[in-house]
Amino acid sequence: MAESILHEPLRDRGPGNEKTPGLWRWLWTVPAAQSEQPALMRSGWRQYVIAVGAFALTSLLNWWLQPGIGEHAAALVYLLSVVLLALMVGRGPILLGTALTALGWSFLFAPPAYSFHIAGFYDKMMFATYFLVALIISQLTARLRAERLAEQQREKHATALYLLTRELASATDLADTLGKIVRQVGQTFSAEVALWLPDAAKPGELVAYAASTWHPSEPDQKLAVRAFAASEPTGPSKSGASALEGLYWSLSTGGSPAGVLGLRLQPGLKLSGQQMELADHFARQIAIALDRQRLRDAEVNSKLLSESERLGRTLLNSVSHELRTPLSAITSAVSSLRTLGPLSPAQSNLTREIESASARLNRVVQGLLSAARLQSGQIRPNLDWCDVAELVYATLRNLGKMLDGHPVERRLAAGLPLVKADSVLLEQALGNLLANAAVHTRAGTPIEIGARLEGKEVVLEVADRGRGLPPEQVARIFDLFQRTPTAKPGGMGLGLAIVKGFVETQGGQVRAANRPDGGALFEIRLPAGETPLAPDESP
Fold first, then answer.
1. Can you tell me the mean pLDDT for 296-302?
2. How is residue 19 annotated by DSSP?
């Protein structure tokens, strides 16, 4: 595990940022978990040992120097030792060192020696002034030291956040982003890292990132799921289970979480308040990066899909137009053969087959062209007042031989109002429904076509007595290229999709259902309009 940029300077460096080996390093080192707490809270017993040792060494030095400098200069040496001590320890040890030096001076050097009684007024004032000055200077020095440490910690946190942001900004794809998250978070917090992402196939569930450096146990994974659902940090302290190992952050920017980040710290390490705040910042930056990557992937997929659709429409349009020319030539050639003279029975059968196949292929090409126009949004309906009864009769007339062998039952209500629609598009939609019923039912099976007024809508119905629609496919029956398993070979699944497109462009609706007594039922619903007045009937 790489060394943490948060912990390394506090464990390995002294007040002057120099390496501190041996016993002095052991006495000096402040536990990393205490380094960001207030000074009174992080004064460990080793710092009190330092305070007592400094007093003892300074007393020996004063005892050696006292014959030459006097008792008053010894107080200044004590004061210097307290200032130096404030550069290394917290407020508790400083208070202890100040009290020890004041009492030591009064006991060892202030007359009478080896007694806490101070005889002279000047010496009493010296003792009181020394204690106050030593206390104030030591506390100010300790405050400056604490501020310096806090500034260093803030700088480390800002550097760690900058390094994470820089790494995430340079990621090229999701795999690269996840790898950099695991590496950078692990280096920063000296921890093992686990990542979970939402399962696209199962909403609300998580999938573990395989390249994580930590693979939690099942109880810890439950905490990760809880953090994902609650969108807030969680861990053993909040769950009441001390045996659990990790801390977890939901990677959320305010919306749906982009995943969960888990940390397992090294034994003996804990995150302080500032480090928890830094971890929260890390979680937010990671969530932003994952959301940005998700949007980038969605944009790429959208571009690919748009380009694929555009290519498909272009190819469909080109093929359809190329097929219309030979179809026209075939139809003209058959008509010419009939005008040349009487044909033999075999020739007549062949010409009928050619005409039937040409008509069928022409319908396929027309369907492809209509689908291409719908996909490209090129259809602009020419709305005008239409008589529904006339529209039904015109559709039946144009289908001609397509409905041979299927008796058509008309059920048109009397007094139907006019509808404002594109008669060409509506006729083609109704024709597709009738042709679909003829193709998917046996010869001799009746086809019903009806029209009625229902509320403010005119409803056109086409029903048959065939096998009906598979229940699982009713909702998708109008999708492009959708065909039922029992459909006859030769179709392309365009007819019903064209019906839906043509009807909806005119402000109508279309639906499909199975009849209770067998067969399929298709409905076209159009808004009923008020019958316009003729020019000579205007008021």
1. 84
2. B
